[in-house]
Amino acid sequence: MSQYNIVKTPLKVGIVGTGYAAARRAEAFNASPHTQLVAVSGNTPEKTATFGNTHHVKTVSSWQDLINDKEIDLICVSNVNSLHGQIIKEALLADKHIIVEYPLTINSSEAPELLNLAKAKRKLLHIEHIELLGGVHQAIKQHISKIGNPFLASYETILSKPKVGTHWTYNYHNYGFPLIAALSRFNRFTDLFGEVATVSCNARFWDAPESGYFSACWCQAQLMFKNQMGVNITYGKGDKFTHSGRVLTIYGDEGVLLFEGEKGKLIQGDKIIDVEVGSRRGLFAQDTELVLEHLLNDAPIYTTNRHSIYTLQVANAALESYKTKQTQLMDN
């Protein structure tokens, strides 16, 4: 028996959300012998109905109704960032296990309360970080020793989107500060290099014609780690960008690791070696399988909530730096 005292399977699952992540979760739950997907709640009746038909699951009118369904054991939170904290708290109070796509919450100050509540209720609270399972991150961990002592890294992610519309990922309130919403950009580096000493950040936003929305943004953060590792992170998206791209570079005193999209290279002097990078496909299914093994059999899991919350605090420091125009000390 696991630490969560689960005595009956399949676990009955409800999903909050109808987007890409929710669809991949639905596929994973439907494929697992340990779970039965029973309900979904979405943002609009039309999208919820389409999702329900596609994944053969009943629809409910609100996330409140979903978490109060006594039949459901596990809630998967895959909807707008601004509601994560509220849904998780209410679901824990309703004695549900929880899987949530990062971030846990866009308000880092409420994160410890959510963790403590999950512990008190003896319920699973898993924060997804599939970037740690992805091919690029695994390739970095495999080859980073070959570049000697790392001292500098940069990571640039640009998403060109000529027609933005009123999607929630371009809504100031629902999406949150981009470097909190896109927490994986920080999380892979705290996983690799540990604790951060200082954070500084600049950003720019372009308002959309629709009230409360932006049409483009960029954010740039500089992290100085306690081991003297420097990391520069650039994240931009929207209609001001004409090209998309993703480039990650790590410099060491004996070489360089360079990843352009899913193509990697190890550069050592004049020698350039191709680095094999695993596929990004199937990561939500892999995460789901690992979480269920942990939930049912106490198997170790690839990430911890404490680490995710620490990274969330780093991202919140970036927000404070942007607002105050001052470098933030993490020890404070």
Automatic annotation (TrEMBL):
Family as reported in the entry's similarity comment: Belongs to the Gfo/Idh/MocA family.
All residue ranges annotated as the Gfo/Idh/MocA-like oxidoreductase N-terminal domain in the record: 11-129
Protein name from the UniProt record: Oxidoreductase domain protein
InterPro entries found in the cross-reference section: Gfo/Idh/MocA-like_OxRdtase_C, Gfo/Idh/MocA-like_OxRdtase_N, Gfo/Idh/MocA_Oxidoreductases, NAD(P)-bd_dom_sf
Signal peptide: none
Pfam families from the UniProt entry: GFO_IDH_MocA, GFO_IDH_MocA_C
Recorded GO MF terms: nucleotide binding
Residue ranges occupied by any Gfo/Idh/MocA-like oxidoreductase C-terminal domain in the UniProt entry: 146-326
